[in-house]
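pls read this protein:
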Amino acid sequence: MAIDFGPERWGKVKETYRRWWAGELRRPIVEMVLTGRDPGRPQPKAPVLSQATCADLTIPADDLIDRLDYELSKEIYLGDAFPMVNMHMFGPGVAAAFLGARLDNSTGGVWFHPPADTPIENLHFTYDPNNIWLRRIKDICAAAMRRWQGQVLVGMTDLGGALDILSTFRPSEKLPMDLVDSPEEVKRLVGELHELWHRYFAEINAVLQPVNPGYSAWCQVFSDQPFYIYQCDFSYMISPDMFQEFARDELEAGSRRLPRCFYHLDGRGQLPHLDMILAMERINGVQWVPGDGAPGFDHWIDIYRRIFAAGKKTQVWGPVEPIRRIIREVGLGAGIHYRMPGGPLAERKKFRQELAVFGVDA
């Protein structure tokens, strides 16, 4: 049994998102995925591609896609949802591995380690067309395009942010000290990483397009134009002055190179930088993540008001009632992208009723 999603459904998703990006949709985007559909064939032998399995390069890319096809065939897509492969399986900031960092998934999750303890003045980043991880991701993307012919969206892999990638090569306290002791070296390396990042982005997209039905990233927001969600998790540890000196210009330059982008604002330590991020005209939205141990999304109404006052969009996820509270407080919910928790196919009627609360036809 094939994946339950055809051209007509894709046409509806694309039109809904077109209106959302244009500010014409007077409700939130709401996506829900149910599981439990019979895939209609035996389970393939290949494992599900994940951070725990991504380092096994002996598995043919086509076999990995076949297993993902089997998993997607179990799903039903309600509301504005669509079939997608989220290519975050190679870990957050995989561009570090493209540049020679060691990819370690021995714990079941992916971590990156520097190949050597290199002084910052001797550190240089160059493009390697034969890098095993870059080639592996391209091979998987090519296999996906052959298999699905545009039925499934394959998102951009999690490349990471420039300072986050640099922190892999200057771990622990080294990079914070570099900002003080070697600011020009940091800026030089951020510049190198910026150019390489966009080269990787363009090359992977060249494999995906024009077959891929659109563009997305690990946040799973759909766009009919190139899109990414930028980040600088390292900025949690630095002051607004340092953010302005070392991060802002690179982020702003990146936003000018893509038609659409979001910013991933991760944790309360990044809130001092929010005004600078909102002032960047080409950043279309801010994904606010309160962080572990922090109150839930509906405890940050003022943050959402600031985001919307700046003309930006946002993304939220989690239980229905807290999200309904956010929508009540900030307005109709236009500009919100909500990933609603899914569940078993047997409870489809209940989930349809929850979607209807948001004005979404399931």
